[in-house]
């Protein structure tokens, strides 16, 4: 999928655990983990808003578009 979720990066920058974020945004650990690992197929704006509020960031800090062509390029 060309949308990359950088939730783990923002959590590391804010030094926040998955448990702590789960409590702040009132999402289950399993749903948050699915989002964190990039396995989610969708995210509600209300969830994105809650995460941005908890991590003090912008949606663009959490989501990134990487085209399939760009992924295929060697480093």
Automatic annotation (TrEMBL):
<dbReference type="Pfam" id="PF13443">
    <property type="entry name" value="HTH_26"/>
</dbReference>
<feature type="domain" description="HTH cro/C1-type">
    <location>
        <begin position="7"/>
        <end position="62"/>
    </location>
</feature>
<dbReference type="InterPro" id="IPR001387">
    <property type="entry name" value="Cro/C1-type_HTH"/>
</dbReference>
<dbReference type="InterPro" id="IPR010982">
    <property type="entry name" value="Lambda_DNA-bd_dom_sf"/>
</dbReference>
<protein>
    <submittedName>
        <fullName>Helix-turn-helix transcriptional regulator</fullName>
    </submittedName>
</protein>
<dbReference type="GO" id="GO:0003677">
    <property type="term" value="F:DNA binding"/>
</dbReference>
